[in-house]
Amino acid sequence: MSAPTQRKRKPRQRSRGNIEELPSGALRVRVYAGVDPVTGRRYDLKSVVPAGPDAERDAQRELTRLVHQVDEHRHPRTNATVNQLLDRYLERSKVGRKTKNRYRELADMHIRPLIGKTK
Fold first, then answer.
1. Of 100, 8, 18, 94, which is closest to residue 59 (Cα–Cα)?
2. Cα separations in angstroms, 98 against 1, 16, 49, 92, 105
3. What is the pLDDT of residue 80?
4. Separation CA 49–CA 119 (nearest Å)
5. Contact, 38 vs 84, CB < 8 A?
6. Which residues touch 17 (CB under 8 Å, ≥6 apart)?
7. How confident is the model at residue 39 (pLDDT cuts 50, 70, 90)?
8. Confidence category of residue 14, pLDDT binned at 50, 70, 90
9. Whole-number Å distance between alpha carbons of 115 and 41
10. Contact 86, 116 (CB under 8 A)
11. Mind listing the pLDDT tens digit for each residue in 60-69?
């Protein structure tokens, strides 16, 4: 007689994100995307699905989309603004004093006014 075969169960995977209902009835979808390298804080991708008859289904689709985006590394890895990244670059750059001052002037004239607040 042969030994009984046992089925191996797959371990239950933890949810990679969550869906929560907002007071307005809309659903917020949130997926963990890692740690922000600039600030050191937790970074989540978020999306809000408007309330409606298909909101739950749409939220599940959005959750799947965000999880795939994280898996494919297509999400921004920081919440830092261009201004914050420029400041960090300028303090760490290994160039001469005059060159660094010129970089600051150019950034202040051309970059910061246009896209400095952009994440």
1. 18
2. 86, 49, 51, 15, 11
3. 82
4. 22
5. yes
6. 29, 30, 31, 32, 63, 66, 67
7. confident
8. low
9. 23
10. yes
11. 999 999 999 8
